[in-house]
Queue: 3 jobs
Job 1
Amino acid sequence: MSFLINCPNCGDRGFIEFGFGGEAQSRPAPDASDESWTSYVYRKGNHQGMQTEWWYHRFGCRLWFLVNRNTKTNEVVETAWPKLKDGKPAPAWKGK
Ligand SMILES: [Zn+2]
């Protein structure tokens, strides 16, 4: 298994340079039910096919971004910086 991920900051790199951050999901409101928070934290769709995911450029710029990837073929269709609810770019988020 080998595939490239196009880091929005650094360009194409082998997936081994990155860390997987899980499926991208909408975060529940702070006052949402325990069931909503439990589902958000613990239940994953584990879809076969296209999925939006968080990835982290561990051995590069160390920034988090979103990847649309086919989980069956590992084809990376698109990468993008996250956006705020108003559509504006979110501030860059550096990992450890
Ligand atoms: Zn990068």
Job 2
Amino acid sequence: MHSFLPRLPPRGSVRVVGIISSTASPLLSPSPSPPGVLGVSLMAMARDLHIVPADLADREWAARLMARSEPWITLGRTLATCLLVCRNPDYLMFVARRGGTRCGFVLLHARGVVGSPYLATIAVEDAFRGQGIGTDLIEFAEDYFRPHARHMFLCVSSFNPRAKALYERLGYRQVGELVDYLIDGASEHLMHKRL
Ligand SMILES: CC(C)(COP(=O)(O)OP(=O)(O)OC[C@H]1O[C@@H](n2cnc3c(N)ncnc32)[C@H](O)[C@@H]1OP(=O)(O)O)[C@@H](O)C(=O)NCCC(=O)NCCS
């Protein structure tokens, strides 16, 4: 039985009161386990924010959020392709909820880049942006992997400077540029942070 209490996030406004427990390391079981096997309950209490594993309905909501948002519109992602990504059981998804309302999500692969965790996608509903929820989701993901990993990676499109600024504020640095990677005329910037 493996269990750990994630490190308290550095932001004073967030209190972590939950516990993650699993029969195996999260790095060995990238899919969310059934309820009762993996229980995650992190509460950003000051903002009444709960970050919990996504169920299938959450994954379908996340795909719809992606399909109607930048940068995925410019990248040509349809609802069908977003559903494929979001339903992929190889990827962990956590959803941030305030009360009963879904605010945002983060999609993760435990070994996505040279064996290290990869933050594949993050999005927050328009109405909830700029309130720290994206920061909470990223810090949650870092805390989730930190006991088992030394590095974290993500990609950001060259035409998404606001998201890149957020990642840089959180300590990510560009370590590569994939030119014309998803669409012609745009790069994906590979970002790295030492956990
Ligand atoms: C990027 C995103 C997840 C951040 O979530 P958030 O809850 O708004 O983030 P926070 O409140 O913690 O931080 C705010 C910062 O996020 C970034 N941000 C805010 N709105 C954004 C938007 N529409 N697109 C990209 N980045 C944005 C900015 O850096 C902002 O800081 P600023 O207000 O000083 O410019 C969210 O804005 C979003 O879903 N954007 C659209 C999808 C996207 O770009 N995802 C990233 C793909 S790599």
Job 3
Amino acid sequence: MFFLGGGPLEAAKNREVVITVSRHGFNGARDYVLEVNEGETITIVFRYGDNDLSENNPHRMVIRGINEKSAVIDESNPETVMVFTAANVGEMRLICFIPCTGMKNLTSAIIRVKKMPSSAE
Ligand SMILES: [Cu+2]
């Protein structure tokens, strides 16, 4: 991928992550943690993972703190993309905020924003 005005260092500040969302959690885990670096622009691709259910089970995600919301993913719209910049060091909660089967597994994921290694000391 090439970014206007940026060399390899700029490109390294951008990260794409694919996360499958299902009643079992984010990538199947209730305690999913995504670690990113301060200043990175993160593209999250959310994929619907409940196709083995007989009924539709829509999910819609929000990142608490920055209030970034995804579109709904479900059987008819199985993929959506969310882009945000990790501006501040710290932790933000990533949750599904619409009632769904397995919601209890989708309320405690964390996006952890770390200081860039080069500026840690
Ligand atoms: Cu959900």
